[in-house]
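Illustration: Tungsten ABC transporter substrate-binding protein.
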Amino acid sequence: MRKAMLTCLLMLAVFAAAPAWGDALRLSVTTDLEASGLLDVLAPEFKKDMGVDVQVNPGNLGTVIQEAMSGGSDVVFMSDPARQERLVARGFGLQRHEVMSGDFLIVGPDDDPAGAGGADAAACLRAVAASENMFVSRGDGSATHEREKELWKATGLPLQVGKTTLTERGERMTFESVRPEGMAGFLSIGDGMGRALDAAEEKRAYVLTDRVTYVRYKYGRPQGLRLEAVCEGDGRLIESYGIVLVNPEKQPHVRLDLAEIFARWLVSGRGQRIIADYRLFGRRLFLPDSKMAQSRAVPASGQ
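Result:
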């Protein structure tokens, strides 16, 4: 009863702060979130409740961070808590708010020729590296690529570490590259998740993928995807999503009032229920408010 009363009071506070109809919130999100379709549900419900339009601007991780630093958005919604905390530490963002969790998977040929299957991600990668099978790396400095590098470092294998430079939308990005020493089957493509999955399918290779893109490619297109999950459920595969409100002291034109309303609504019972109930092709993608920390991963069945 007390919990219900607190939820009602929170929603009353959110509604009381609602601005005039017609205002728009600028929300920068990473491409995996945009592709999940979740914002296509959240934004209309937020508009219905609060009378505020949401302008969703998708981009890669670097673009979303740059939008926050330049004042091109009022709120950023992304994974990679460490980078979000750096935004706050540098004064470009206010406090980070935990919203939900998703996860990564290591997928490969359905007959798992490397014998890599299991719940330990580092052991899975060691098995792939010891086999004659290929591993496809995005190699693009994305959040998925960053997680892949962390997992390779966790294997304890000798690694070749270098620097890679890519140009995207006219901007040069330089980032660390990591690969197992002597692994002839390691293929870095410097491209997005969809291309990496297609390359792994073509070459009967293994690849680290976010669940959103995997579900879209396996269940959302006529040709499907033969790749199957060989490793999931490891705590190191959890992907935490949060929002950071852009600091108006750095960018005075940002709408902190709208950003605060959105933040309160998103972490309220109303926003969290929408996230909990959301499915893509019948598969669950996210768990609200970091509950994945207790359940370890989104259920493999997606139910």
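Reading the tokens back as a structure: The longest helix spans residues 2-16.
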